[in-house]
Amino acid sequence: MMQGIFNKAVFRAVWPIWLGYLPLGFAGGVLAQKVGLTPFETGLMSFLVFAGSGQFIALAMMGSGSSSVSSIVVTTFIVNLRHLLYCSTLAGYLMGQSKKYLGIFAQGITDATFAMNLNQFSASEGQWNPSKAMGLNILAHGCWIFSNVLGNIVGNVIVIDTAIVSYTLTAMFIGLWSFHFTSRLLVLTGVFAGFLALALSGILDHKLNIVAATVVAATVGCVLEGGNGR
After folding, report:
1. Percent of the chain residues topping a pLDDT of 70
2. DSSP assigned state of 92
């Protein structure tokens, strides 16, 4: 079973995610150290809250000293609402899996693992399966926990430029998006979603602009694809 989860195909798929998670998680660990979390607490938070944006926002609110526990929980929940869309999209590829499997798998869904799993399910013609998808989620999550704990341990020694971290994260997602450059419609849908998210950023708070842009762009893409008879 473990061999089926962790094989060469899974490692080939997960390494781009690792490249993005290592510096981003390291920065998250540094921030956690600055707000007073220990390495153990940082590791536990990374295990329970596997979401970069949600964890950064929660840490920032904790550091402000003026946010209640309930407001932190609600804000993190709203920021990660897009994961519901990810789960519904991948559900068709996971039919017949046990509730235990689905519960563990859902914990490992992030922007990056969703994009890579969807790409692998769509492009591998049956070679990518639920076991490999689970392996990718576990390896990505493990890297996230490791990088956060490492950042916390050395956070009082090394200073990280957050601009570099933001660039690395953006570069990772552009790389993941490039796997979908298989048709003009997919490229235009992605570009439209990006511009729409930017346009809505001044109107919607708590990253809801990303959720709204994703829903609208995906809907428009589906309508156009259906109109082309594909």
Report:
1. 84
2. G
Of 193, 153, 156, 138, the C-alpha closest to 25 is 153
- Cα–Cα distance for residue pair 170/84, rounded to 1 Å: 22
For residues 41-65, average pLDDT = 84
The DSSP code for 49 is: -
Can you give the pTM of this predicted structure? 0.71
Residue type, 68: S
Q: Collapsing DSSP states into helix, strand and coil, what is residue 151?
A: helix
User: From the DSSP assignment, how many helices (H) and strands (E) are in the chain?
Assistant: 12, 0
Which residue type does 182 have?
T
What SS3 class is residue 122? helix
CA dihedral 40, 17, 89, 48 (to 10 degrees): 0
> 207: how many CB neighbours lie within 10 A of its CB?
19
At residue 187, φ and ψ (nearest 5 deg) are: -65, -45
Handedness of CA 26, 29, 34, 38 (dihedral sign): negative
Q: Which amino acid is at 97?
A: Q
Helix axis angle, 52-64 to 69-79, nearest 10° = 160
Q: How does pLDDT run across 132-185, given as a tens digit for each residue?
A: 999 999 999 999 999 999 999 987 777 666 556 556 556 656 766 776 677 888
Closest CA to 20 of 92, 116, 156: 116
Contact 21, 46 (CB under 8 A): no
